[in-house]
Amino acid sequence: MFSGSIVALVTPMDSSGEIDYTSLKNLVDFHVDAGTNALVSVGTTGESATVTVKEHIKIVLKTLEFADDRIPVIAGTGANATHEAIIFSKIFANSGIAGCLSVVPYYNKPSQEGLFQHFKAISESTELPQILYNVPGRTVADMLPETVAHLSKLKNIVGIKDATGDLDRIRIHREHCGEDFILLGGDDMIGLDFIAAGGHGIISVTNNIAAAQMAKMIKLALAGELDEARFINQELLPLHTALFIEANPIPIKWALHEIGLIADGTLRLPLTTLNTAFQPTVKQALLDAGIL
């Protein structure tokens, strides 16, 4: 359940900024039909930084309800305060989620020892499988491979989403964390390369809108059929690029609304809708990928 094509699911909102659960249900159904392997609910792409704690919990639970055991749901439970991350893990303990995606604490700039103690405390507070999430471009702090290796020895830390862009870390993690430690990519631009280098799957933004193509590409790549996978990836490259023309999830929400998968593309401040200067670029990428 922690491999293959996993979507970093957006959180749809209506024009007033309230959570749009009708669109959320439509998205879950879309991914089930497309062959997506799992959903990440309320991660970075799901605007975890701007929804309230009450909303965060409800979005995960509604996603589980809509999934109805048809597709695994991974809950975003990371926080920059250890006690808050523990609270999320405890709340979802018996909910039916497959596991937790827990980001490196942001803003605080913890040391490597601080990172180890943070994730150790979370691990000791729950039986739920924990996937570490290292994205130094957003958190500033970079969890080094030695720290990941130490954490991999803890009972329920099962893998990492690596969004460092450093493909050499796959080899290092494999060497020091063991063959069973799950390696998930977090960068669509090098997602196929990540699989080819030994990764188990991708937690993808592009998957929000090109779910069937991503599912097929990752399935081929994991089967070693890299030439066919590269053909699909080549078609998706303009989309991988365009969806980060502004900060994620600004472009993906605009794109989902543009093709009618969500009713509105509203984001919570301080995020604002896609700049009109960039909209033709994203629209062209959708056309090139055969989506629009």
From TrEMBL:
Top-rank taxon, per record: Bacteria
SMART domains from the UniProt entry: DHDPS (SM01130)
Source organism of this protein record: Candidatus Enterovibrio altilux
First-listed, main subcellular location of the protein, grouped into a coarse class: cytoplasm
Pathway the protein acts in: Amino-acid biosynthesis; L-lysine biosynthesis via DAP pathway; (S)-tetrahydrodipicolinate from L-aspartate: step 3/4
Keyword Cytoplasm included in the entry's annotation: yes
The name this protein goes by in its record: 4-hydroxy-tetrahydrodipicolinate synthase
Alphabetized UniProt keyword annotations: Amino-acid biosynthesis, Cytoplasm, Diaminopimelate biosynthesis, Lyase, Lysine biosynthesis, Schiff base
UniProt site (Part of a proton relay during catalysis): 44, 107
Taxonomic lineage: Bacteria, Pseudomonadati, Pseudomonadota, Gammaproteobacteria, Vibrionales
InterPro entries: Aldolase_TIM, DapA, DapA-like, Schiff_base-form_aldolases_AS, Schiff_base-form_aldolases_CS
Stated family: Belongs to the DapA family.
Its biological purpose: Catalyzes the condensation of (S)-aspartate-beta-semialdehyde [(S)-ASA] and pyruvate to 4-hydroxy-tetrahydrodipicolinate (HTPA).
Reaction equations catalysed: L-aspartate 4-semialdehyde + pyruvate = (2S,4S)-4-hydroxy-2,3,4,5-tetrahydrodipicolinate + H2O + H(+)
GO molecular function: 4-hydroxy-tetrahydrodipicolinate synthase activity
GO cellular component, one term: cytosol
Family matches, as SUPFAM superfamilies: Aldolase
Keyword Ligase: no
The EC number(s) this enzyme carries: 4.3.3.7
Biological process annotations from GO: diaminopimelate biosynthetic process; lysine biosynthetic process via diaminopimelate
Positions of the catalytic residues: 133 (proton donor/acceptor), 161 (schiff-base intermediate with substrate)
UniProt subcellular location: Cytoplasm
Entry binding sites for pyruvate: 45, 203
Subunit structure and binding partners: Homotetramer; dimer of dimers.
Site features described as L-lysine inhibitor binding, chain residue numbers: 49, 80, 84, 106
